[in-house]
Specification:
Length: 172
């Protein structure tokens, strides 16, 4: 039920277009401390870049093969390792929506950079949490280049990253 996506602006055949790439191949874990939310933990978040798709198969092939080089095993995944959860409230309850930040290290294309995601969680029940996290990065900071393509006049330097997730408690 979770999804990772990116958005980037391009000028294609004279028209500005927002390109969106998505995948549901995302994994991660969180540990919520209901008594003291500041002690909550977020584990590694991993996205399979080979499964990203846009509205154009030619773009998808360039994205996977030339830009992300996700066809190489060493670049198959984007990994985000959280370092710190910021601005968590002192208490949470079912029905609450919580805004906070996640500071961590994002590795894409073999390059690791610190990134801060702005996040919102909704506590649906004691065993079900839904949320969204967003950050903006520059693809050049991850040693990626976008090849020239017919009709594409410009591609933005800024890439918006977003993760929409549903977390379910493990039943033992």
């Amino acid at each position: 039920q979770s999804e990772a996506l990116f958005r980037i602006d391009e000028v294609l055949l004279g028209d500005t277009k927002i390109v969106v790439g998505t995948t549901d191949r995302i994994a991660g874990e969180m540990l919520v401390d209901w008594d003291d939310p500041a002690n909550s933990q977020l584990g590694l978040i991993r996205v399979n870049l080979r499964t990203l798709s846009t509205d154009n198969e030619f773009r998808d092939r360039a994205l996977r093969g030339q830009i992300l080089e996700a066809d190489q095993d060493k670049y198959e995944f984007a990994d985000f390792i959280p370092v710190e959860l910021l601005q968590l409230p002192s208490s949470i309850a079912v029905g609450d929506s919580v805004d906070f930040q996640i500071r961590g290290n994002l590795t894409v294309h073999g390059v690791t950079r610190e990134v801060i995601f702005d996040a919102t969680l909704t506590i649906v029940s004691n065993s079900h949490i839904e949320g969204n996290a967003q950050a903006t990065v520059r693809y050049q900071d991850f040693d990626m280049t976008i090849p020239e393509a017919p009709g594409v006049a410009k591609v933005s330097d800024q890439v918006e990253l977003e993760i929409s997730f549903v977390a379910q408690a493990l039943v033992e």
